[in-house]
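Weekly puzzle thread! Below is a chain. First person to post its structure in token form gets bragging rights.
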Amino acid sequence: RYIDRATCGSDDPGMAVLFTPPTKPWTLDMVRVYGKYANLSAEPFYTDQDRVFALEIWDGNYSLLYKLTDYSQAYFNTTSEWTEIDIPDMIVTDDFYVCIFERASIFIGADTDKPAMKSYEVQRGPNRMVYATYREPPYFVTEKPLNWMIRAVGA
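Winning reply:
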């Protein structure tokens, strides 16, 4: 299952997952994302800006700790797979969020089996979140929670 746009009421929607460090302090050094590049080359109305994504790390108060902005093709292929994104070592001692703002350039995987209630649809300015959900077929009326396939890696 892939969700390509969040619905939090923003011009720059994204996905976020809340993490609690397994030990304190803990060093975050990589983010893994299950997804694929949405090849927009056949769409003439998309610009280079639409091919860019942002990875942000926020603290528990939604304050920005780290940001990476790059072309989606630099990290994602057109086939679904886990992508590793190295980040500078970051020592965390409390809950933090990993946020992806995909700007329609990547599809992020979602798992619907056992939702942990730590996945969110997110917007910036001011930073806001709502639980991530999807509408279940066949009538797409019932909303069910999901887990974004975004992982924090460290030691």
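Puzzle host: Confirmed. Bonus trivia for everyone else. Confidence is low (pLDDT under 50) at residues 1-10.
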